[in-house]
Design a protein that fits this description.
Blueprint lengths: L11 H54 L3 E2 L2 E2 L2 E2 L4 E5 L4 E8 L2 E8 L2 E7 L5 E9 L2 E8 L8 E8 L5
Antiparallel strand pairs: 1-4, 2-3, 4-5, 5-6, 6-7, 8-9, 9-10
Length: 163
Amino acid sequence: MIRRSSRWAFTLLEMSGVLMLLSLIFLLVAGLLLGALRMQSLSDAELARLRVQAALADQFRDDVRRSTAVLPTLGEQKTGPTCLILRQSDTRSLVYRWRERRLERQAIDGKQEQRQQIPVGSEVQQVEFRTTGRLVTLRLTERTDRQAPLQTLELSATLGEQP
């Protein structure tokens, strides 16, 4: 009987090499998936921030367009960098007020009063109102990343201008 020396199996070294190669491929794929998930999370957060700012811009511009004047005072409130008083009619006024990192919109119609918290985003550091003639500006200063510099967004509208 003659024995043949051909083998049909792999050595331990060959198996180890294949396992090591498969492990490296698995690590690369896992790293790519984690990176993609992180990018998705960041883009979702940015999209949510942009949606909040778009809703604020629409509300603010609509309110300013429907207004006829900026009032210097209304009761105890005074127009200034953190407060904006808009007159929409003889009996209706709107007050935007920034305090304690919250933007509040107060509608006063005769003796009725309605308050509403306006979302501005979680990273907004400061809100400032400016009036130049008939142009009214809302300026948001925010930090989108702890290491990034402050960013400014300005929303402007003209009093009484109908689209």
